């Protein structure tokens, strides 16, 4: 068992190292993208000023149109079957009204899961996740919506005999999507591409009252839902596509184990995936708003701490919710620097309290996150395991091979704000600090303590050279 745990930990470490490299590359791309956006904004403002000027009133009434491409969108295509069962004795108009009511209820479900309704054509209904606002959770969002759609129709059919004419077949596929926008006051979207066609094919290859998903979608949702294999269908240029029926949410993460509604465990797993979307927004905020003289407390430091808390968290045996809280606290722990240098931890808590309710964090979770942020104040005095983990992660550089350049960055940051004297003074202060510092978790002590002692000797040599 211990051998298996070590193997799993090594896999997680390898994955975190890879994520850290990807995030640093994302940071580089964000910097480049921000420069391009600034140029675009200037161009847009010039055009906007011309539109507002006399003689351009007609231009301002023009339709909004554009083409957007998404690497990952999830399309739901639902066919409502029932017209073939109609007889002369049935109230046709009443049934049409029922179909309208059914689609209206579907609209409410789509809104609940922040999906985009695309269109209804006759007895077909199409919506999508990840369009026009991209997110990492759209396959899960769409499947949750499909389960509620299926449940609602099941309840409708069980209500009276006249409703039993309706059957539903839902097909879901995740892939690249091209979205075309049009409209004046309200923008509507038209989707193009293989993803739409495959979702339609999956619906046609589905049994009544079932949810049929592609293997693309299955790979992205299988940790949340119970599924069963449903054979293959041929798809042009793609070969044979595997299909799966969604039976429901995995009982352990389902409310009352019934498979329709998620419980708090589901919410934690969901937020861990959603974290990447939130991280992208916060890193972009930091890149744009952090003062340029923050050579140490910059975006790279935040990325390092987010990576390290996850590594230490898993190694110290904390559960998924605690890992989520640690990563979220690490993401916001220096966000207060966008407002001010001193007391930035309290400012970061205020930013987190404003931001996190939009991602469905509970008040209790937000308070625990704020406690973790406050725990990073110097000198560190952690009161529990999670606070020990984030404090060790925040000062991880003390035992890393890149200690000297990182330490010099912190010196330059303090020097520019007149908070420190000469470099020689700084090195003496560093020796005093490192000599009195201790890592709090066993994992950090094993990983960094030996190397940290080496840093003292390296700094002493620098002082002698001065």
Task: Give a description of the structure.
The chain is α+β, with helices and mostly antiparallel strands and 466 residues long. It has 2 domains: 2-37 and 275-465, Hypothetical protein af1432; 66-262, 2-Layer Sandwich (Alpha-Beta Plaits), CATH 3.30.70. The chain has 15 helices and 8 strands. The protein has helices at residues 2-52, 57-60, 92-112, 138-159, 194-204, 215-221, 264-289, 299-315, 320-332, 344-355, 363-374, 385-394, 403-416, 423-436, 442-465; strands at 66-81, 116-121, 124-129, 167-182, 188-192, 210-214, 225-235, 239-249. Strands 1, 2, 3, 4, 5, 6, 7 and 8 form an 8-stranded mixed β-sheet that branches. Helix 8 packs antiparallel against helix 9 and helix 9 (320-332) packs across helix 11 (363-374). It is elongated and about 90 Å long.
Describe how the helices and strands are arranged:
Layout: H1 2-52, H2 57-60, E1 66-81, H3 92-112, E2 116-121, E3 124-129, H4 138-159, E4 167-182, E5 188-192, H5 194-204, E6 210-214, H6 215-221, E7 225-235, E8 239-249, H7 264-289, H8 299-315, H9 320-332, H10 344-355, H11 363-374, H12 385-394, H13 403-416, H14 423-436, H15 442-465
Parallel strand pairs: 4-6
Antiparallel strand pairs: 1-3, 1-4, 2-3, 4-5, 6-8, 7-8
Helix pairs in contact: 1-7, 1-8, 3-4, 7-9, 8-9, 8-12, 9-11, 9-12, 10-11, 14-15
């Amino acid at each position: 068992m211990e051998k298996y745990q070590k193997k799993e930990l090594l896999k997680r470490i390898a994955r975190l190292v890879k994520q850290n490299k990807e995030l640093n590359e994302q940071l580089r791309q964000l910097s480049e993208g921000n420069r391009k956006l600034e140029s675009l904004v200037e161009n847009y403002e010039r055009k906007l000023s011309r539109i507002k000027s006399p003689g351009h009133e007609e231009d301002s009434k023009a339709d909004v149109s554009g083409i957007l491409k998404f690497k990952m969108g999830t399309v739901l295509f639902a066919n409502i079957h029932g017209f073939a069962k109609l007889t002369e004795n049935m109230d046709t108009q009443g049934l049409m009204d029922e179909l309208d009511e059914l689609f209206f209820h579907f609209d409410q479900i789509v809104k609940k899961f922040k999906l985009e309704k695309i269109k209804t054509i006759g007895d077909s209904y199409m919506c999508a996740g990840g369009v026009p606002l991209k997110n990492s959770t759209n396959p899960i969002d769409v499947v949750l919506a499909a389960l509620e759609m299926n449940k609602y129709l099941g309840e409708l059919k069980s209500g009276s005999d006249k409703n039993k004419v309706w059957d539903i077949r839902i097909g879901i596929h995740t892939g690249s999507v091209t979205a075309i926008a049009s409209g004046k006051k309200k923008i509507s979207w038209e989707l193009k591409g293989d993803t739409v066609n495959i979702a339609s094919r999956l619906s046609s290859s589905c049994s009544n009252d079932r949810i049929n998903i592609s293997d693309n979608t299955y790979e992205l949702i299988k940790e949340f839902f119970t599924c069963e294999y449903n054979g293959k269908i041929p798809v042009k240029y793609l070969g044979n596509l595997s299909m799966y029926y969604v039976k429901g949410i995995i009982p352990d993460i389902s409310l009352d184990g019934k498979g329709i509604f998620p419980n708090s465990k589901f919410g934690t797993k969901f937020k861990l995936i959603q974290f990447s979307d939130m991280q992208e927004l916060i890193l972009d905020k930091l890149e744009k708003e952090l003062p340029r003289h923050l050579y140490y407390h910059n975006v790279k430091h935040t990325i390092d701490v987010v990576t390290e808390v996850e590594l230490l968290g898993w190694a110290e045996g904390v559960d998924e919710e605690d890992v989520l809280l640690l990563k979220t606290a690490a993401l916001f722990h220096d966000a207060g620097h966008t407002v001010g240098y001193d007391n930035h931890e309290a400012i970061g808590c205020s930013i987190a309290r404003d931001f996190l309710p939009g991602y469905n964090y509970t008040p209790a979770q937000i308070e625990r996150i704020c406690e973790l942020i406050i725990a990073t104040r110097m000198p560190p005095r952690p009161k529990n395991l999670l606070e020990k983990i984030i404090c060790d992660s925040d000062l991880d550089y003390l035992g890393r091979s890149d200690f000297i350049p990182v330490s010099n960055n912190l010196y330059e940051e303090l020097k520019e704000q007149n908070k420190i004297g000469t470099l020689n003074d700084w090195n003496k202060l560093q020796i005093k600090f490192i000599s009195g510092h201790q890592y709090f978790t066993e994992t950090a002590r094993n990983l960094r303590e030996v190397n940290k002692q080496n840093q003292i000797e390296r700094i002493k040599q620098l002082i002698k050279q001065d």
